[in-house]
Design goal:
It is a single chain. It contains no helices and two strands. By secondary structure, it is mainly β.
Length: 89
């Protein structure tokens, strides 16, 4: 069985995700994990760690007693029909 680090993932489908509220070039690490269900169907997970400077508007009307929502928006360059699922953790 081949190790995931030895597979050329560019030969396979990829989600082509990007962060749209980043300033400059983010530092990004991408890795893949393959898991098998009991019927031996393979599931490939692409995982990313992104570090950078991000832009977000703050609502400061109730400062300092407010809370802020951090927006995570990861659009894709793929047509919507091809995206199976996306989990942001």
């Amino acid at each position: 069985m081949q190790k995931t680090s030895e597979i050329d993932w560019s030969k396979y489908w990829e989600p082509q995700l990007y962060v749209d509220n980043v300033v400059g070039e983010p530092r990004e690490t991408v890795w893949h994990t393959v898991m098998f269900d009991p019927e031996m169907h393979a599931f490939v997970f692409e995982k990313r760690r992104i570090a950078g400077t991000f832009v977000e508007n703050l609502e400061l009307y109730q400062f300092p007693f407010d809370t802020q929502v951090r927006r995570k928006h990861l659009p894709t360059k793929r047509p919507r029909i091809l995206i199976l699922s996306l989990y942001i953790g």
